[in-house]
Amino acid sequence: MSLLPEPVRRLAAWCAVLLLVAGVGWVGVQLCAEFRTAVTPVLLALLGTALLGPLYRRLVTAGMQRSLAAGLTCVAVVAVVGGAVYIVVAALIDTGDQIVASLRSAARAVAQHFGAAGTGLDDLARNARTLLGKFGGTAASNVISGVSVVGESLAIAVLALLLVFFFLRDSHRVVGSLRSVAPGDTADLLEATARRAYGAVEGFMRGTTLIALIDAVCIGVGLLVLRVPGAVGLAALVFVTAYIPYLGAFLSGAVSVLVALADRGFVIALWALGVVLAVQVLEGHVLQPAIQSRTVQMHPAVVMLTITAGASVAGILGMLLAVPLTAAAFAVVHELRVRYGVPEPSDS
Fold first, then answer.
1. pLDDT tens digits, residue range 1-29?
2. Distance CA 102, CA 104 (A)
3. Angular region, 217: left φ>0, alpha ψ -120 to 50, beta rest
4. Is the dihedral of CA 318, 323, 325, 329 positive or negative?
5. Closest to 78 (Cα-Cα) out of 193, 134, 158
6. For residue 240, which of 80, 33, 104 has the smallest C-alpha distance?
7. pLDDT, position 96
């Protein structure tokens, strides 16, 4: 005779399972953080492979040798990303002095309007020597750490690009490798879950790219109509940063408004802000539900919580990886439910 009733024992069993899963997940996160220099390129390469897979398959279908097709695909992505970065940097350099001048004049106007003591530009310049003397050591250490971070980021990017090449070239061997390491008679299950997870990641990358392209075109056209200099470069910035949820839209929108303020004045800057906000509303209420709901099949609330959790764990990189990894996990769970005949929860 059991000492505990059946509902209590079921609750205890579920608590034990949740604790086990949480413990394994925590250990996995800690290991990934410990070996982040090796794990990060692999995850980024998987995203890049999911994004570039259709182009690679088209080249192979056209009769191109696999190594050459993978190499051309990597060269194409380097050319696109490098060109976008060059256009953005050139546009910002051309308007950099104007942006600084506009910000100075705006700060001076604010200081004169409020007339607060100690907030004018002259006061800031007068106290600059003291501030530099007090925080000079910290600034120097930050510069050194920043240089090391840039070097590490470049190394990760190069390694991720090389991994994309190998992942694309050897993609036809993945299924055989998975089936060879599957224990017992789980080869079919492992292959099905892997295909489902990769399909979810591929769908996320495809949907994000389409949304980024629409955002870049709409904002670029709006800036061209407003005759904002460097509109093409700013549109390229919108496209590149769209892969970072929420933060990317904020950064690209802020830069666009600053450039408009620098060259065209306050009124045009307000119009540019309106264009950016309108496109973001279009994305959040039309594009995201219509596109990502078909490719990722995740509720927007789940996406927001996932991004928040990813940011708390790994910063910007966590924001970038959180949604595709969660989409892959949801796809695996869905495949397991289908395999074992567990009914899906109804919407009603």
1. 467 788 888 898 899 999 998 899 888 87
2. 5
3. alpha
4. positive
5. 158
6. 80
7. 64
Sign of CA dihedral 254, 311, 314, 160: negative
Q: How far apart are CA 291 and CA 214, in angstroms?
A: 12
Q: What is the pLDDT of residues 25-52, one digit of tens each?
A: 888 878 877 888 888 888 888 888 888 8
Token pair belonging to 81: 């990303």
pTM: 0.70
When pLDDT is averaged across residues 81-102 and rounded to a whole number, the result is 71
Given this model, what pLDDT does residue 344 score? 58
E strands in the chain:
none
Which residue's structure tokens are 């050319």? 79
Q: At 11, which amino acid appears? A: L
Q: Long-range pairs for 317-320 at CB < 8 Å and ≥24 separation?
A: 317/40, 319/244, 319/245, 319/246, 319/247, 320/47, 320/243, 320/244, 320/245
Interatomic CA distance for residues 247 and 14, integer angstroms: 37
Q: Is 344 exposed, middle or buried (0-12, 13-18, 19+ CB in 10 A)?
A: exposed
Three-state DSSP class for residue 8: helix
